[in-house]
Amino acid sequence: TDSGITFDKSFTDKCSGGSTKRPALEALKDYVREGDTIHVHSIDRLARNLVDLKQLINDWTNQGVSVRFHKENLSFNAGGSD
């Protein structure tokens, strides 16, 4: 990749980020495990409202998964420590 990061797997939805019921997002939720880091190009690619975004991030960090948004240079670390 351009950022020098190598990914184990990529999940891409062809539809809007306006819904959390998207095939690739559901596949990501099933795939991700404790110790993983989810890399997202931009916040608006994951969720279109703060309620959904907060829920996704809380679920993942509570599972021991970190989330990194590249465009915004923002990270949420596993266990809830930002």
UniProtKB/TrEMBL annotation:
Resolvase/invertase-type recombinase catalytic domain location is: 1-82
Cited Pfam families: Resolvase
Q: Which SMART domains match?
A: Resolvase (SM00857)
One annotated GO molecular function: DNA binding
Q: Which family does it belong to?
A: Belongs to the site-specific recombinase resolvase family.
Name the PANTHER family on file.
Answer: DNA-INVERTASE FROM LAMBDOID PROPHAGE (PTHR30461), RESOLVASE HOMOLOG YNEB (PTHR30461:SF26)
Q: What is this protein called?
A: Recombinase family protein
Q: What is the lineage of its organism?
A: Bacteria, Pseudomonadati, Pseudomonadota, Gammaproteobacteria, Vibrionales
